[in-house]
DNA sequence: GTAGGGTTAG
């Protein structure tokens, strides 16, 4: 017996044998079950059945079906059905129906159309609520239009529409994704001040932002903060932390977090394994990756296509990195460059190691060129010096940078604004690294007040 | 008693 027939026979039995009143609620719940299982097709058959039984579908029925269509990427069909319902005027579209369509449009890359629908709502009698605004604000952030999202957010406030933890999560996530930490922090403060408590979703966004930014210690601290405030870290929290560690090449730390999670009695999911397998593949540790892959079925998990394609991709990039590194060291930069472009022609993404090696290689080439220009009687000017110094600073080659700084100052040139701000950045982020101290001494005027703090 | 929004792999 198919699912559909089973549902119908169940409804039949409920009605005749158990004596439960079968009504439109029963059908709506059954339709929703199908839709959540990505089987809107069965849901639509039930719509036919309920008609035959003399029931009239209501707003719940249609909203559930519209959402079911969107869940299986049939948003155009959902929009058609929505338009048909509007034309028939049997069912007055409510805020949930608008919200569902807005979500469908956003999920299919039509945020602009969703915004148009929002305008229609604002002018009509069915006013948008927090959920409609959240859907659009989240989508704007994901489409890199964070400023528009912020504008919409303040407009909501003017209209007195209440804000909840979900809308703050969307905005803070968007702000963090674009490095707008200050605004994100302000948002968080604003939320806490208005008495809204962060939940596990919000904490996960914050942990993600911190660990990706290299602030592992602070991210870990959130585990304690969460627990103290009665919000238990979940699998996503652990996965987020693991992913962050892998991103920075700290696979051992990621494994430690994984073991902590298991000790806490939480069940790792396919994400957990894919993150770790990726981490090992990026380091070309195939044995460890395979070991984890074989462990999955024992936990009742099935690797999906993403697990495998990520593995292949990581290994491919790792192999390219090994070759690029070798050719850079041999000063075969043309070959290294060819390999670098080969990555993108294969649809692969160079990682931070690839870029660092290429920049390093090009910088070495630049250094040679720098020496060569002087030998050929063409003296570098302030622009040349500044660019090369910035390159060395970026490569954390503070010794070379300080030599050139001294040379440049001796020639009567000075550090330009971007070199200065780079040095200031380094001081604020790195503190007073002993090798960096050397640069600062060259950079700072002898009688500067700041020197007292440094010495 | 039933419907719509936010988090982690690529």
UniProtKB/TrEMBL annotation:
InterPro entries according to UniProt: Mito_RNA-Proc/Resp (IPR051240), PPR_rpt (IPR002885), TPR-like_helical_dom_sf (IPR011990)
Signal peptide: 1-19
PROSITE patterns: PPR
Alphabetical UniProt keywords: Repeat, Signal
Sequence ranges of the PPR repeats: 23-57, 58-93, 94-128, 129-163, 164-198, 199-233, 234-268, 269-303, 316-350, 381-415
Record keyword Disulfide bond present: no
Pfam families recorded: PPR, PPR_1, PPR_2
GO molecular function: mRNA binding
Similarity remark: Belongs to the PPR family. P subfamily.
Name of the protein: Pentacotripeptide-repeat region of PRORP domain-containing protein
Source organism per UniProt: Camellia sinensis (Tea plant)
